[in-house]
Request: fold
Amino acid sequence: MTRSTIDLWVGVFVAIGLGALLFLALKVGNLASFSTAETYRLEARFSNIGGLKVRAPVKSAGVVVGRVAEIGFDSEAYEAIAVLSLDARFKFPRDTSAKILTSGLLGEQYIGMEAGADTRMLEDGGRLRLTQSAVVLENLISQFLFNKAAEGGGDKSGK
Reply:
């Protein structure tokens, strides 16, 4: 093999390697799934969204049905507002509930939707009224420690 043929093959493998790194970076950043499908938007309000991020998945029955499009703050009600962009193929009843869940013990957070039984469906610009905020690990630990301290702080005279 000549020197130019070897250089060509090295260049091909370097290009493939860079393409693979770009693909992995997009996958990790939740940007690899570009969709041109028709969507509709819903609003959900939470008292605490924990570590929820824009582009986090919205799942129902374990299936990704959309993504978090925006996260904002209502300074009058002091609540976080998550705007969800759902695939138009998936329609949900008006009494659908949403809660912020975590993949695994310390994994990424996502919004889980549980369909209700109403016959009327949510429409573009609608609002999910039944929401449950994120469970914050630090709050659980402090509550556990506070309860343990309260149990141990009783009368120690043995009566």
About this structure: The radius of gyration is 24 Å. The mean pLDDT is 84.
